[in-house]
Design a protein that fits this description.
By secondary structure, the chain is an alpha/beta fold. It is about 45% helix and about 25% strand.
């Protein structure tokens, strides 16, 4: 079973002893590994697509874990019941899609003790959702694998909303607090990309280009504000 650095990072965030739902499970590698290493007591592997779910089922049977890991064809958390699991993974999809899935199942989400999220994009929108719906970001990690950056967020429910700054929403409160080395690499890469885009857009007069230029310049400012955390 191929277990990438990204999957290891996601799996490491799950609290030992959890009952897990893996939403968008693909091959079910993560719940299989977590059960075989004794970190979870059971799991529900779920996917909206039949093909990946069949592959997940085959892998689960191959490892002799069909008594412990169920598979369900489900749009997001639709086929879960409140209290059935206490931990959920949503990995390998965009941040806004994660927000949509969570927003569509509020009763399930608020019955959970933790969310382990690996957004492929739109991390600000995801952190904004967590902040506004009563979740605190407990931990964050990031890996660089095959030239791509993969942030992983663990969030837990709280009673009072914790307000995050713009830089914390964009780049992660725990990342900035711990001065995460992979985040610094990401910031430096992103700044170079944005500076090239800025130079290119400055040569274009269209309204769309001007709007995009403003967005790029704003992001450069926030990246440079994030560098301050590393100088503290």
């Amino acid at each position: 079973m191929v277990f990438s650095k990204r999957m290891q990072c996601v799996a490491s965030m799950v609290t030992p002893g959890s009952r897990l739902a893996d939403i968008g499970c693909d091959h079910a590698y993560i719940p299989i590994w977590l059960f075989e290493t004794g970190r979870i007591t059971m799991a529900v592997a779920m996917d909206i697509r039949l093909g990946p779910l069949e592959r997940a089922k085959e892998n689960i049977v191959h490892h002799g874990l069909e008594k412990y890991i169920q598979t369900r064809l489900s749009d997001g958390m639709e086929k879960l019941s409140p209290g059935e699991v206490n931990s959920a993974i949503l990995a390998g999809i965009g941040g806004k899609l994660i927000v949509r899935i969570l927003s569509n199942s509020p009763r399930i989400v608020h019955s959970l003790e933790e969310l382990v999220l690996e957004p492929q994009s739109e991390t600000k929108a995801l952190r904004q959702y967590l902040m506004e719906t009563g979740f605190r970001i407990e931990s964050e990690d990031m890996v660089l694998e095959d030239g791509k950056f993969y942030p992983v967020i663990k969030a837990v429910p709280i009673e009072q909303i914790e307000t995050l700054s713009e830089e914390q929403l964009r780049f992660g409160p725990k990342f900035l607090k711990m001065r995460h080395p992979v985040l610094m690499t990401y910031l430096q890469w992103k700044e170079k990309v944005n500076l090239r885009l800025e130079k290119s857009l400055q040569r274009t007069e269209s309204q769309h280009a001007k709007k995009r230029l403003k967005e790029i310049q704003e992001e450069i400012q926030h990246i440079r504000a994030a560098y301050v955390y590393y100088d503290m």
